[in-house]
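To make this tangible, we now present a fold written out as tokens:
***
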Amino acid sequence: MNYRRFGRTDWMVSEVGYGMWGLAGWTNTDKQEVAMALDRAVELGCNFFDTAWAYGDGVSENTLRDLIKRHPGKSLYAATKVPPKDRTWPPVKGNSIHNVFPPDYIREYAEKSLTNLGLETIDLLQLHVWEDDWASDDDWKEVVDALKEQGKIRAFGLSLNRWEPENGMQAIRTGLIDAVQVIYNIFDQNPEDELFPLCLQEDVGIIARVPFDEGGLLGHLTKETRFPAHDWRAGYFCEENLAPTVERADALKPAVPAGSNLPEMSMQFILSNPDVSTIIPGMRQVKHVEANMHASDLGPLQKPLLEELHQHRWVRRPTAWSM
């Protein structure tokens, strides 16, 4: 495992972290297999784990608590998120931050997450949605300063809305944002344009999420794929999105180097960008952990292939099903 500096925090985090959304609320999740997968990740050098209260209403945070307890001699970074008070992802345009993240509410959920995680200090507390119109509000800034001064959190960040990498840049300029989490993959390359340069300028850590486009870049989907109605992916891979995703993934397959596969190439694409601090693929099985952690050992892709993959950029804007 290789490690990268996490912005101004100076933490050295594993360049392949662990996204913990799929460990709570997704179909076909086996608790014992999940524990084995998490333990294997630690064995392979993973030290950055991203969860959220909203992942199973604290279930995923409890899972991370148990992992930390099983590895008392390891230094594991715990990142979690405060859910929007109105439970709306993404936030409604024009809504006041006081309806979504009022000061007392941020404190309340910081405390809830501390309890769920079994920690005295959260390494990284993030807001689970964001609107840059809120950047000038003073209340959230005062709460962040107070939580840091009280030792409740070490760093503060934002999870940026899907396909809106620019919607957070004003907040970054306040100097209070230590990290941003953004969708970045072969399809979603837009963060390279403005967000990444600003993060480098402000020394902000970059967490790349959704490296496989919610499964679209795994190469397993077909136009006939269907998910159970209660599975979040049933909405994401609706008729409007499924067919073009399959077609674009199929178009990528001829570019996969000999001896590799589409998921591995997708991981290497992200790791080839030195701006990224860590990637957080979702993993529920040991075999997936081993495959994703192995990507750290492979090094960057060759320049001609990177140039080819940049031609597969898919510019999308938020819509009713994208959340």
Observations:
- Strands lie at 3-5, 12-14, 18-19, 48-50, 77-82, 122-127, 153-159, 179-183, 205-209, 278-279.
- The domain at 3-213+267-300 is CATH 3.20.20.100 (TIM Barrel).
- The chain has one domain: 3-213+267-300.
- The CA atoms of residues 26 and 232 lie 7 Å apart.
